[in-house]
Write a structure and sequence with these properties.
Multidrug-efflux Transporter Regulator, Chain: A, Domain 2, rod-shaped, three-stranded antiparallel β-sheet, SinI_DNA-bd, alpha+beta, DNA-bd_dom_put_sf, Helix-turn-helix domain-containing protein, about 140 residues
């Protein structure tokens, strides 16, 4: 069975069709529509399509979703992508950028590690200069 793709604009009103998001429609005759409906109703969501939590489609995030995970703005995520710190894909020349969830989580973990290392370094420097022994409450009173 072959179903020919046509532009969605050529589909007549009241006609059953499928589309995969490429602007083309696959018109279904009555028997094919019945088969599709049967397949959809006989399968549960878990069995209709094999689902693996590590599928590429589930792992791809928009820059907005990545921003939410990282706790930054979408614009900041754009800068991170432009700097090459997180790889991304773009399905069209000017389309949205998509990033792997694993890469975003790895970037977040590396950023947290860098921050912890910098904090530890500042604590060591403060300790070496006896700055950790300063009574800051007393020190700050001189500025009141």
């Amino acid at each position: 069975m072959t179903i020919e793709a046509i532009p969605i604009s050529h589909v007549q009103s009241g006609t059953a069709y499928l589309t995969v998001g490429d602007g083309k429609a696959y018109v279904l005759d009555e028997s094919t529509l019945e088969l599709v409906m049967q397949a959809l109703t006989e399968n549960t969501p878990e069995t209709a399509i094999p689902h693996d939590d590590s599928t590429e489609a589930d792992d791809l995030l928009t820059t907005g979703e990545a921003a939410h995970i990282l706790g930054v703005s979408s614009k900041t995520v754009g800068r991170i992508l432009d700097a090459g710190e997180i790889p991304y894909v773009r399905y069209t020349e000017r389309g949205n950028r998509w990033v792997s969830r694993a890469n975003v989580l790895a970037y977040r973990e590396n950023a947290h590690k860098r921050h912890r290392d910098h904090l530890r370094n500042m604590q060591e420097i403060a300790s070496e200069g006896n700055l950790d022994a300063v009574d800051y409450a007393t020190y700050l009173t001189q500025f009141e």
